[in-house]
Every structure is written in structure tokens, then in C-alpha cells.
Amino acid sequence: GAECHRHHRSLDYFKVLAVVSFDNPKGKDDRERNLYTFSSAESLWSGPRKCFDEIYRPGKRGFQFPQISSGNNALCGTTAHWLVPYYFGHLEEPTKHYTLDVSSDTGHTSLTELPTAVSRHITYSNSHSTLGVTADGALSLFCINEQALMLRIDVWKRGNDVDNQVWLHSRVIELPSQTKHLYYLSGVHMLSVEKSDTLLVIDYESQCVHKVNVETGVVEEQQFQNGLNSIAMPMNMDWPTWFASRLG
User: Fold this and answer.
1) Residues 6+ apart with CB under 8 A from 206
2) Residue 204 and residue 183: Cα distance in Å, rounded?
């Protein structure tokens, strides 16, 4: 799901977008992925809205909505984006990748196919890819790849001065050589309109967490007691402002 805030409303206003998976318990071929919305201005959740016409299952082509994790979606402006693979039924690897784009203002839903070069990087990263929004407000994609026994992060950004839908390969960040058991790459979740150029790279084997600055390429080791796991949800938080709002 994604939580959306809008500045021209009350600071307490929020809207939640949730994509819900439903599999028929009788095993019939009617899998569904539906969008539901809820806001602080409403008393009930919305009715279901179908996201995909084709849902993947063994032997059948279609979209496979990814497992829940903090890196599957990003909020860019007032539009929420989810990274979604498309499979042909006879292939084990996805052949295409899309973003599922949902406007929090209008509820309009669309699918945008990613360029072949971007999709190839996602496939090579063995699903260790995540969406995010960098400090300049650009929707970005981060993919971990291994080349010559070195781990690196490929950074793609959407948009330029001519075409907002084009994806550009903006930079490559090499990770420390001791990062051998990389399992999960987590993008930073943003609150309000705050942006961040930070990624947390979690190495489960060594319980090590690397803080990566996407803009400068600087990598710093961070220590967390008992480590982190894939359900961790990183975010930027202005604690003084938050406490002041609660005191008011």
C-alpha cells in the first residue's frame, strides 16, 4: 500500500491506496488484484477496482504482483507507483516490467511498460530492485547486480527536459567488497513531500547495513542491534515538528 498526503488540505488529512490479492479458494482461474482506497475524509473503504486484465499463474501469461516489501512502491508527487513483472506462461523469468501508476487525486490507474534496457537490469538483479524518489523529486529505480565478483547498484531515473517518461541510467555505485551475502535492497519511504537520496543495503549473513548516498555514491556502514530484515520500513522523520504538532 501507499499513504498519500496533500498540502492544500489539513495536515491531518491522509489517503491510503492498497492493492489487495484475492485467490479463489476453490482453485478456479479467477485470481484478482484489486485497488482499494481510504481517506481520513471518508468513513468507509472504497469498492474494489480491478488492476490487471491478466494475472500470472503457471502455464498462463500475465502480471504477477510482487510480494509485500518496503521496496515495491514509491510515491512521486500525488501518484503512487508499484513495480510489477509480466510473465509469459512458459518462462521462469519475467519478460517485461511495468509500473502500476495510481493517482491519489483522481484514482486513475494505468500501466507503464519500462524500456527493455531497464527491464533487463531488473531481471539481472534477481528481484533485488526497488523504486524510490530521490531528493530532486525524480522517480528512480535501484538495481543490484554482480559483475566480476563485485556488487554494484545501478541507478535509473525517470524523465528529462524533453520526455518525462524516458528512463536514464544516471550512475553506478560500487558496494564494499565484504558485502558478499547481499539479500535485500530497501528504498527509503518518504513522509509528506520530503525526499531522500539514501538507500539501506542489508546484508543478512553479516548483519551489516550499508547506508548509501545515491547522489554522491558514498557508502557508510551502519549498526543496528539484532540487525534489520525485509519488513523494516525506513523513513525520514522531522521529530521536533512531529512532537510540536501533537502538543498543539
Assistant:
1) 178, 180, 181
2) 6
State the pLDDT at residue 7: 46
- Tell me, yes or no, if the pTM score tops 0.90: no
Spatial strand order in the sheet of 182-187: 182-187, 198-203, 208-213, 219-222
Q: What is the DSSP letter of 41?
A: T
Element (H, E) at 120: helix 116-124
Give the H/E segment covering residue 247.
helix 239-247
Mean pLDDT of the chain: 76
Starting at the edge strand found earlier in the chain, the sheet holding 167-174 runs: 129-133, 139-147, 150-158, 167-174
pLDDT in tens, 27-46: 555 567 888 989 888 889 99
Q: What are the CA-CA distances from residue 247 to residues 194, 240, 242, 244 (Å)?
A: 22, 11, 9, 5
pLDDT score, position 107: 83
Contact 85, 92 (CB under 8 A): no
Whole-angstrom distance, CA of residue 34 vs CA of residue 239? 35
